[in-house]
């Protein structure tokens, strides 16, 4: 069992938080979290649902806005963790905690600038809530910091939308001598993608292999929303049965980041895109040990990018044309408020 698997197993035993499986519980936990904050904290964490801030995401630990989780008192801190636990699976919550703890591992090896401004800190993650948590009106939350951007949009009558999702890790595979030695936050995702690529024959590999410098999709820079990209790579329909099983396992593992209700919705998104899915992969020696993985299809784009000497990995999940619940919000406004946003 690797170190991250051990962390997850321990969390399942010792975690004092209940993992929720429905949107009602999520709203209740968010209300409890807000009630534990003082006036200044409440002002830092709340925005109107319609404000543009809701779609202002950051993949780097700069220009972050909201309420700093690590500065909260014990009760409010725990209630914030409860909101995460209401959205994530046990494995997903353990992954979030592992990402945060990696800040501790790399702090001493970072530049003077990062140390001076305290940019490497397991507590430097920020809450932002948009609208009033409820089961009768749209609302959402963002939880964001270095290598983590969780964006949840709750629309009445539907499971929460959870894209865009950004996860990252540095080191990619923590070496001995560091506190998190053996942890590979995105290790299983990488293993499944590499297993699929290794199983391809020459013709399949030619279709799946991208040019590293020019075909790395949307990983370079921050992209909050996007339209469906053109099909790229090897079509799922051109894979063998065993290869399709590996691709499906890769996608299912990502969906398992969320609680049961949300994971079922993300699996339905995957199923809707399944016949149009394409898989692409590329490895490069410059920078050393770099690689890029892409799975795309109608309404789905999932990318993993590894840079900086093979030791700095990022993953992003988008629902093109539907990030931040844009499509659900349009349908909600039409059905319940008589406001037509779509032509």
Short description:
With 343 residues, the protein is an alpha+beta fold. It has eleven helices and eleven strands. β3 (125-130) and β4 (139-145) form a beta hairpin.
Features:
alpha+beta; disordered N terminus; disordered C terminus; 37% helix; single chain; 11 helices; 343 residues
Outline the structure in words.
With 343 residues, the protein is of the alpha+beta class. It has 2 domains: 3-168, no CATH class; 187-326, no CATH class. 37% of the residues lie in helices and 18% in strands. It is built from 11 helices and 11 strands. The chain has helices spanning 3-14, 23-35, 39-45, 74-85, 90-106, 112-116, 187-198, 202-208, 241-255, 260-273, 326-337; strands spanning 46-47, 67-68, 125-130, 139-145, 148-154, 165-169, 234-235, 278-284, 290-297, 300-307, 312-318. Strands 1, 2, 3, 4, 5, 6, 7, 8, 9, 10 and 11 form an 11-stranded mixed β-sheet that branches. β10 and β11 form a beta hairpin. α1 packs across α5 (90-106), α2 (23-35) runs antiparallel to α4 and α7 (187-198) packs antiparallel against α9 (241-255). It is globular.
